[in-house]
Each structure stands twice: as structure tokens, then as C-alpha cells.
User: Which sequence fits this backbone?
């Protein structure tokens, strides 16, 4: 079993999309170039590099015929891409319908997922895929042996099916044989396999419909491993649940938990990711450092050893990181200069550094295009801060810019507030709006930045 899990960063187009500039798959890696084409490297046994053949590559190759890409995701032996027109494309292994194109034939070039439009986010599981539509509904396809499609059945599907009873979803993640979704009220919902407690609802019974994770509120990001799940709260702390055999819950012991427990010793976290086939976890701090915990037999924790850790350890030598992703047993980070760094298993060339030797510390991917920079770098340029967040609906936006536009949109993309910026401080009163998650956008002549804000009364 091999797996990847992704983080979500936000930017604004015609509707809100979840930008995923890098991704790790089973033994493959993916990145989006500045021209919105895709590069892939690593294992290609099932065509997961999408370049028209099945030959592994330890350096990046261009995925065939893909343009306008704004997000990538990886599954076990397949890959996914989201276009800026809201369509989804997939390539690689397809025996269980992982590609969602209505058949079960592998493809080493991208094929369009059937009947999906207006998609804003994508995620891959071991043998299933997940997509978020701009109306807040979730769609899945592929293997369904544990109910990971969430449609009330255990029947595989090679076309997308709608997850039952989920609305107002703003983020998704694929676990090994389970899925995770974040609602606009900060609660987390899960479905699929639960033998290790990865659904977080206090029992170990699998579910083919979504169930709510116990006791979590104020969540702003989610991540999944093969047998565990992660959530990031709006106060910068991380919670985890499920399998803990290798310390992937990061709480100082190796005991499974079917309810969320807090990860030890890290704070000011801005992004999370699960990896290692579900046996390790990653976190990005607001200072650009990366932290990891769990299984480490291939050096996927990046701390210069191959010793497991049940508490977070810092990845060696990484600064200025703005995005992270986990593969089966290798990890990725995107730096603010557009370079990508990998560490861990390299048997099939998943580190992209021109050889096939594992590395216990980060190495730079060679021959790679300038990778799309996430909005975190734009945030630094604009120096925006919104406080308090969450609030009862009255926010103060501080920025060093004094000329531009500021607006607030709800999850449907409807603009509920707009103003011209004429000073470094803007007061926004949304106290008449319902509880939930909204987006504040600032646009200048050269940049735009979108940040999530939460109303809790």
C-alpha cells in the first residue's frame, strides 16, 4: 500500500480554488511549473508520470498535454491534476476505477475524469480519488471496499459519485482507505476504513457515510495518512487520531487513538500533511521550518537518521519553506525561491536528484522548472494581517499597502463586502453574517492575496 496526502493553500480565481503546487504519490512526485504545466518524477510502472511510457525517471519529466493546471495530487500508482476551468485529469493505475473516466484500463497519459466540472480541490487515496465542487459537495471514485466513496455502498465506481449528506465543505483529504472533509463551521467529517480509529468518532467501525470527528472545532486544515488523520486548529496546534504504531500521532507514545489527541511540542503551524503510507506526518511552521514524526526507516523524517520518532523532530537544513507534501515514504517541500526539496526513499527516483539513493536529509530536485509559488510568499510581500481571527464578525486588516481593493466573499464566491484601500488599516464589520468561514481578498495592480477568516459568535 502506498499513499500521498496534501496540504491546501488558498488563492482567488473566478471561484475559490485550493492551490496544490507540489504532491507526492506512492513513489512518484509532482510539481506545477510557472507556466501551469506539470512535471513528474519517480515510479512509472503504471504510467503515473503521464509522459506516454512506463519507464521510471529520477529527474523531472513533463506530463503530456496538460496546461492550465492549478493543483496536483497523487495516489498509490496514479496521479491527478486540476485545470483552471474546473475539470479534473488523471493518469496511471485504473483497475479499481481510480481515474474516474468510465473504464478500468490503465493510462500513461492524462484522461479527463467523467462528468466533473466546477471542481476546486482534489485529493488521492491509495486506490480512490476525491474532488470538491464549488457548491461545497464532495465527489469520489475508485475502490470502495471500506466505504471510502462515502455513498452508502461498498461498490467500486469508475465514475464520480456524490458523498452522502455533505454540504458546505471547504477542504478535502484522502487517507489510505478513508477520507476527511472540513466544513465551513470548522468541524471535521470522515468516512471509510476505521479499524485503527482513523475516523476519530470514538469507535473502530468502518462507515460508508460521513461521521463527525469527536470534539474538533475551529479547524482550518486537514491531512490524511493511510491509517491516521490530522487536523490543524486556528490557534496553530495540530491534532491527530488513528494508528500510532510508529508514533505518527506525535504525542510521545505509540498507542492508537480513535479520538483526536494533540501533537506534542509544536505550535505556530500553518500547514500539515500525512505520508509514509500513513506512518508519518509533516508540519510547516510559520518560520518556514518543517517538522516530522512517525516512521523513519527510509529517512522520510529528514532529520539525518532513520530512527522512528513519536514526537516532532525538525527536518535538517530547510528554511523558507512554503508548502509540504508526503509520499509513501518520501517527503517534499517547496521553498519560497521556487525550488523543490525531497528526502526519504529513492528506489524509483522519487527524490528527483538524478540518482536512486535514499537520503535522510533534503536534497534539491534537479532540472526542475520554476515551480508555482504559493500565496504565502505573496502574503509576505503584502504583509497582511487580519485580527482577531476568529472573531464575532468585526475584523481589522493591517497591510503595508495603501492602494488597492479589499473584498469579502462567502464560500459560494458571492461578494458580501467591498471597499477601496486608502490606508494601512481597514475595519470590516461582518457581525450581521452567520457563523462560518469566509475569505478576505486584497488585490493590487501586481498581486492578489486571499486569507480565510472565521466568524464565531
Assistant:
Amino acid at each position: 500500500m502506498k499513499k500521498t496526502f496534501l496540504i491546501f493553500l488558498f488563492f482567488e480565481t473566478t471561484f475559490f480554488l485550493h492551490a496544490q503546487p507540489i504532491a507526492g504519490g506512492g513513489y512518484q512526485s509532482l510539481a506545477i511549473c510557472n507556466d501551469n504545466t506539470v512535471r513528474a518524477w519517480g515510479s512509472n510502472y503504471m504510467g503515473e508520470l503521464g509522459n506516454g511510457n512506463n519507464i521510471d525517471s529520477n529527474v523531472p519529466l513533463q506530463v503530456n498535454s496538460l496546461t492550465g493546471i492549478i493543483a496536483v495530487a497523487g495516489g498509490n500508482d496514479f496521479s491527478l491534476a486540476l485545470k483552471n476551468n474546473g475539470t479534473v485529469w488523471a493518469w496511471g493505475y485504473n483497475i479499481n476505477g481510480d481515474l474516474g473516466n468510465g473504464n478500468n484500463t490503465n493510462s500513461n497519459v492524462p484522461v479527463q475524469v467523467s462528468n466533473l466540472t466546477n471542481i476546486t480541490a482534489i485529493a488521492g487515496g491509495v486506490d480512490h480519488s476525491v474532488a470538491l465542487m464549488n457548491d461545497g459537495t464532495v465527489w469520489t471514485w475508485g475502490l470502495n471496499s471500506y466505504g471510502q466513496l462515502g455513498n452508502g455502498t461498498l461498490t467500486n465506481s469508475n465514475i464520480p459519485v456524490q458523498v452522502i449528506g455533505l454540504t458546505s465543505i471547504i477542504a478535502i483529504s484522502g487517507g489510505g482507505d478513508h477520507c476527511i472533509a472540513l466544513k465551513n463551521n470548522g468541524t471535521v467529517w470522515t468516512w471509510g476504513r476505521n479499524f485503527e480509529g482513523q475516523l476519530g468518532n470514538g469507535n473502530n467501525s468502518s462507515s460508508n457515510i460521513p461521521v463527525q470527528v469527536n470534539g474538533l472545532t475551529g479547524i482550518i486544515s486537514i491531512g490524511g495518512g493511510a491509517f491516521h488523520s490530522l487536523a490543524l486548529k486556528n490557534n496553530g496546534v495540530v491534532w491527530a487520531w488513528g494508528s500510532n504504531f510508529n508514533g505518527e500521532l506525535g504525542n510521545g507514545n505509540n498507542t492508537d487513538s480513535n479520538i483526536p489527541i494533540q501533537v506534542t511540542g509544536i505550535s505556530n503551524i500553518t500547514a500539515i500533511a500525512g505520508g509514509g503510507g500513513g506512518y508519518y506526518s509533516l508540519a510547516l511552521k510559520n518560520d518556514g521550518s518543517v517538522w516530522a514524526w512517525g516512521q523513519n526507516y527510509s529517512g522520510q523524517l529528514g532529520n539525518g537518521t532513520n530512527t522512528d520518532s513519536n514526537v516532532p523532530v525538525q527536518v535538517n537544513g530547510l528554511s523558507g519553506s512554503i508548502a509540504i507534501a508526503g509520499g509513501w515514504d518520501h517527503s517534499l517541500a517547496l521553498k519560497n525561491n521556487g525550488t523543490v526539496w525531497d528526502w526519504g526513499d529513492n528506489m524509483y527516483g522519487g527524490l528527483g536528484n538524478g540518482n536512486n539513493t535514499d537520503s535522510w536529509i533534503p536534497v534539491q530536485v534537479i532540472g526542475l522548472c520554476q515551480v508555482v509559488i504559493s500565496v504565502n510568499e505573496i502574503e509576505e510581500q503584502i504583509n497582511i494581517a487580519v485580527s482577531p481571527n476568529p472573531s464575532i464578525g468585526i475584523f481589522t486588516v493591517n497591510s503595508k499597502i495603501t492602494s488597492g481593493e479589499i473584498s469579502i466573499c462567502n464560500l459560494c464566491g458571492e461578494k458580501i463586502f467591498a471597499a477601496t484601500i486608502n490606508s494601512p488599516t481597514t475595519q470590516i464589520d461582518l457581525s450581521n453574517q452567520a457563523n462560518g468561514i469566509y475569505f478576505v481578498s486584497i488585490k493590487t495592480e501586481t498581486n492578489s492575496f486571499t486569507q480565510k477568516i472565521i466568524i464565531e459568535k
